[in-house]
Specification:
The structure holds two protein chains of two kinds.
Chain A (H helix, E strand, L loop, with lengths): L1 H7 L1 H21 L6 H31 L3 H36 L11 E9 L7 E4 L12 E4 L2 E9 L4 E5 L6 E6 L7 E6 L5 E4 L12 E4 L11 E11 L2 E9 L8 E5 L4 H7 L4
Antiparallel strand pairs in A: 1-2, 1-12, 2-5, 3-4, 3-12, 4-5, 6-7, 6-9, 7-8, 8-11, 9-10, 10-11
Chain B lengths: L1 H18 L8 H13 L1 H18 L6 H19 L5 H25 L9 H40 L1
Helix pairs in contact in B: 1-2, 2-3, 2-4, 2-5, 2-6, 3-4, 4-5, 5-6
Classes of the chains: A alpha+beta, B mainly alpha.
Chain lengths: ~280, ~160
C-alpha cells in the first residue's frame, strides 16, 4: 500500500529528492574544509572493489599470457620495462640535477642535494566520470602517501595525489581541467616561466607567460618547482602550438610527455619539495 | 528481486566505468539510469539516478550531489517518457538516450558553471560524442536483453529436436 502511494506521488518524491540534493550541494559549496567525509568513505570502500576487479582482470590476463607460452618472454619484458622506467626517471633526475648545479656553479654556491624518494604504484581504476580526469592507484596512506604528493612516470609528470585512503589513492591527472603546475621552458636561451593547466581533452595550456618571453614550437616544458607540489626539472611536455596576437601570446598548447591512455604504473614522489620540506619539519 | 537487479546493474556499470580506461566516450552509469527509467518508470528511474549519481560523485573529485541531481532529473524524465510514449523501437530509444545525455551534460556542466566551481570550456564535440556513444550502447543493451531469452529458447528447442 505504501509503495503504491509512493508511485502515485512520483512528482512529490522527485521534488523531495531534488531538494535533498540541493541542500547537499549547498553544504559542500559553502564549506571550505578539505575532503568531504562521504567522499573519503565511499572512495575507501570502492577502492577495495576496484582493487579486486583489477586483480581479477590482471589475473586472467596473466594466466592467458602464460598459457600461450610467453611467460618467460613476458617476465623478461616486464623486468626490462621496469629497468627502462627506472633509468628514464634517473635520467630525468640527473638532468634536473645537472641543470640545477649549472645555476649553482654560476652563483659559486655548491650544495648537497639528496635524490628523490619514490614508491612504485599500479593504476587500478580510471575516473568514475568522464568529466574528471582522475585515476586510482594501489598505494595509499598506509604506504606513506599524502595529499599533494607528486605522481610521475618515466616519461614525465602524471599528476598529484588528491584523496589518499588506506590502501589506495585518487590521483588528479595533469590534463584535468582543474590541474595546474608551475612550468618553465627548458631551453637555456628562453627559460620562460608560466603555469601549465589541463584542458580536459588530453592537451595542456601554458598560461601567464610574459609577452617578451621567447617560446617556439618544439620547446621542452619542465616543472619549475614553484608550486610546492612537483619537484623542479621534470618533463611536462613539448610546445605544440604557439599563437600570438601582436606581441602578446594568445595561446600556447603543450603536448604532454606522458601518454595518459596507456599509463599502467607510476611513481609517487615521497620526498616533499624543498619549500614544503621546511614547512613540514617539526619545530623544536 | 528488481531492486537487486538495479543495484547490480549500477555496480557493474560503475566497475566498468572505473576499470576500462579510455571509456571517456561512454557514461555506462547514465546508460543504466536511462535503461532502468525506460523499463521501470519515473520513481525507479529517479531513485536509480540519485543513488548512481551520488556514488559516482563520491568516486569522482567533484562536488557530491551535482551528478546525483543531474541523473535524478534524467532518470525521472526518462521514466515519464517511457510511461507516456511507446519507446520500443531502436530509433526512439536512440533519440531518448541521446537527449538524456545532452540534458545530463546541460544540468551537470550548468550547475558547475553557475556555482563557479569549474570551467568546462567549449566541450560541445565531447558531449556530442558521449551522447552518440551512450545512445549506441543503450540501444545495443536493449536489443541484447530482449533477444537473449529467445536465443536461449531456440537453442534448447534445437537440442531437443536433435536428441529425438
Amino acid at each position: 500500500m505504501a509503495i503504491l502511494d509512493l508511485r502515485q506521488r512520483a512528482g512529490y518524491l522527485f521534488l523531495a529528492v531534488l531538494l535533498g540534493l540541493v541542500i547537499l550541494i549547498s553544504a559542500q559549496v559553502n564549506s571550505k574544509s578539505g575532503v568531504p567525509v562521504l567522499e573519503a568513505a565511499v572512495f575507501g570502500v570502492f577502492a577495495e572493489v576496484q582493487r579486486g576487479t583489477s586483480a581479477v582482470v590482471s589475473g586472467i590476463s596473466r594466466a592467458w599470457s602464460g598459457y600461450v607460452g610467453l611467460r618467460q618472454v613476458h617476465a623478461d619484458n616486464e623486468r626490462l620495462r621496469q629497468r627502462l622506467a627506472e633509468t628514464q626517471l634517473a635520467l630525468q633526475e640527473q638532468r634536473a640535477l645537472a641543470d640545477r648545479s649549472h645555476g649553482l656553479e654560476r652563483l659559486l654556491e655548491l650544495r648537497h642535494r639528496t635524490s628523490l624518494r619514490t614508491t612504485g604504484a599500479e593504476i587500478i581504476a580510471a575516473g568514475a566520470t568522464p568529466d574528471f580526469r582522475t585515476v586510482t592507484i594501489d598505494k595509499g596512506a598506509r604506504q606513506g602517501l599524502m595529499t599533494d604528493m607528486a605522481v610521475m612516470a618515466p616519461a614525465g609528470v602524471v599528476g598529484r595525489v588528491i584523496v589518499p585512503s588506506g590502501n589506495a589513492a585518487k590521483v588528479q591527472l595533469l590534463i584535468d581541467r582543474n590541474a595546474a603546475a608551475g612550468a618553465v621552458i627548458e631551453r637555456r636561451e628562453s627559460r620562460a616561466q608560466g603555469v601549465v593547466v589541463g584542458t580536459g581533452n588530453g592537451r595542456l595550456r601554458m598560461e601567464y607567460v610574459s609577452e617578451i618571453a621567447d617560446i617556439v614550437v618544439g620547446d621542452v616544458v619542465v616543472t619549475s618547482g614553484i608550486d610546492g607540489i612537483y619537484p623542479k626539472g621534470f618533463v611536462i611536455g613539448r610546445v605544440e602550438v604557439v599563437e600570438k596576437i601582436g606581441p602578446a601570446y594568445k595561446q600556447i598548447l603543450v603536448r604532454p610527455a606522458v601518454d595518459f591512455s596507456s599509463l599502467e604504473e607510476v611513481l609517487v614522489v615521497l620526498t616533499p619539495p624543498e619549500g614544503r620540506e621546511a614547512a613540514r619539519e617539526p619545530t623544536p | 528481486m528488481k531492486v537487486a537487479g538495479v543495484v547490480l546493474a549500477t555496480a557493474l556499470a560503475l566497475a566498468l566505468q572505473t576499470t576500462l580506461t579510455g571509456t571517456g566516450a561512454v557514461d555506462f552509469v547514465l546508460v543504466v539510469v536511462v535503461y532502468v527509467a525506460l523499463t521501470s518508470g519515473p520513481v525507479t528511474g529517479l531513485l536509480t539516478g540519485t543513488l548512481a549519481g551520488l556514488v559516482q560523485d563520491a568516486l569522482a573529485s567533484g562536488v557530491i550531489g551535482i551528478g546525483g541531481l543531474a541523473k535524478t532529473i534524467v532518470g525521472f524524465l526518462a521514466g515519464i517518457i517511457g510511461t507516456q510514449f511507446i519507446v520500443a523501437q531502436p530509433l526512439p530509444r536512440l533519440v531518448v538516450f541521446f537527449a538524456a545525455t545532452l540534458l545530463h551534460a546541460v544540468v551537470f556542466h550548468g550547475l558547475y558553471l553557475v556555482l563557479n566551481l569549474r570551467q568546462f570550456g567549449s566541450a560541445y564535440a565531447a558531449i556530442a560524442g558521449q551522447a552518440l556513444g551512450n545512445a549506441l550502447v543503450g540501444v545495443v543493451t536493449f536489443q541484447v536483453v530482449e533477444l537473449l531469452p529467445g536465443v536461449v529458447e531456440r537453442r534448447r528447442a534445437a537440442k531437443h529436436r536433435l536428441r529425438r
